[in-house]
Amino acid sequence: MQALREISLSQLTRFSPPTTRINRDDDVERWKDSKSYRDYAIFLRRLNESVVGCYLPWESGQPSKVVRSLTRITYMRSDPLHQAIQSLLKLLDTLDGWIDEIPPLESPQRFGNLAFRTWGKRLEEVGESR
Amino acid sequence: MCSFLIHPRKKADRVLETLLGNNFVAAIPLIKPLFLVSFGSFTRMDYGTGHETSFALFLLCLTLIRFLEPVVEEERDIVLRIFVRYLHLCWKLQDVYRLEPAGSHGVWGLDDYSFLGYILGSGQVRGSSFQFYLSC
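Output (structure tokens, whole complex):
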């Protein structure tokens, strides 16, 4: 299993923010030759490998990794959540809560409720940090 | 006048700052563009596998800078906790705001909106030699 490289925080100053770079068909080939594409492939392969034999529901602190064979079931404890994981879950919970605060408008349209624009505006506003 | 349109701006948390804390603040301008397009297009009112990919790339960047650690236990949580939570959030966005599937109804046509769940799920069932029943 290939390791994922590390980018140190001091190296971050050399990067510029991502922009849309795949605009035409031949840009896709350029993407496939990029370091980011290789990083992404390694990342997905690692994620895929990490959950072999792991089933939902996945609750920390409970024996919930189940390895099943035809003859026996083995439970392995899952570890308590790393702080970063907890923070990400909290972030997603926050975004979810905004949906309840921004209900859909009355609309005859089949697709696309305009309240989604309001939700999106709030998301873009929170990016306005420092 | 619809009251829900008038939202006090200060109510909006600075979620990326809150997420990353002081140590990783330098990364915010670099990951914010990916984060902002991870939940659909607000102009086209749609959601598709491109947005899902943006979120996966957002998680990749968090791992490259080692906010998330590329170790098996954490990677497992990234899939079974973070990504699952993200999926549920996106399903709710799609349902409540009636988002149109972006592109031609999802890569390979497996799903109108999403694809990574199939890739990651294939790992879950790899090598399994018993019959199982699909459950939510």
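Residues 1-13 of chain B have pLDDT under 50 and may be disordered.
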